[in-house]
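Memo to structure team: turn this sequence into structure tokens by end of day. - J.P.
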Amino acid sequence: MQQTFQWPEMRRILPDVLAFMLGLGVARWLRWPTTDLVWSLWLSSLVLGYAIRML
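Reply from structure team:
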């Protein structure tokens, strides 16, 4: 049996979207260079992915 794709509920993803937008706003307000922002997002993704793998 093939499962069909369902979009997640908005109330579940809204906090993540708001936190991401807040982070972008703070980075712009502090005038971070784009490379610093990309590296910090990549590093946090790497660390979280590694932590999830280890648990």
